[in-house]
Structures are given as structure tokens and as C-alpha cells.
Amino acid sequence: MNEVTITPNKPIVLELDPGTYYRCTCGKSAKMPFCDGAHTGSDHAPIAFEVKERKQVYLCNCGKTANVPYCDGSCHKA
Questions:
Q1: 62 against 78, higher pLDDT
Q2: What number is the average pLDDT over the span 37-43?
Q3: DSSP secondary structure string for all residues of 18-65
Q4: Does the pLDDT at position 38 exceed 90?
Q5: What is the Cα Rg of the chain in Å?
Q6: Mean pLDDT, to the nearest integer, of 33-52?
Q7: Who's near 25: CB < 8 A, 6+ residues apart?
Q8: pLDDT at 75
Q9: How far apart are CA 52 and CA 66, in angstroms?
């Protein structure tokens, strides 16, 4: 996977291979947007999601989506 660009209030766009991924929720991971276990000892837990075929995904980065962990455009709604 290439380096990930994370911009506040913009979805994180990634091309992912099939597999199970864990979205970081604590903000401390060195492998953002994915969990590296940095949340250990906190109230945070990663969000697991599965990709069944290689595809481009848009991960929520604003925390307003109703379709966790995917962006649903909530950051652009008035």
C-alpha cells in the first residue's frame, strides 16, 4: 500500500486488496488510518471491516458517517 494522505473532513481514499482491515479510532496509530494497537489501555477499539474484492474505498475521516467506516458524504451536508 502506498503512503496515505489524510486531510481533515475529507474521506481517506485507498485501493485495498481483499481482506479484513481495522480502522483506527484512537488517532494514535503510526499506521493511520489502520490500527496498530496504540489504543491498548484506552476506551477505544478499532472498527473491523472486510473488503471482498480489490477496490477503491472511501473511509470516513469526519466522524459523522452513518455507514462506518465508509464515507457517506455527511461532512458535506448542511
A1: 62
A2: 93
A3: SEEEEE-SSS--TTTTB--STTTTSS--PEEEEE-SSEEEEE-SSS--
A4: yes
A5: 12
A6: 95
A7: 35, 39, 44, 45, 46, 47
A8: 84
A9: 21
Q: What one-character DSSP code corresponds to residue 8?
A: T
Instruction: Determine the 3-state secondary structure of 75 from DSSP.
Output: helix
Q: Which three cell numbers stand for residue 38?
A: 496504540
**What is the predicted pLDDT for the residue at 2?**
56
CA distance 70 to 76: 14
| C-alpha of 38 from chain center | 15
Q: How many CA atoms lie within 13 A of 65 on its CB side?
A: 17
Percent of the chain with pLDDT over 90: 76
Cell (9 digits) for 52: 471482498
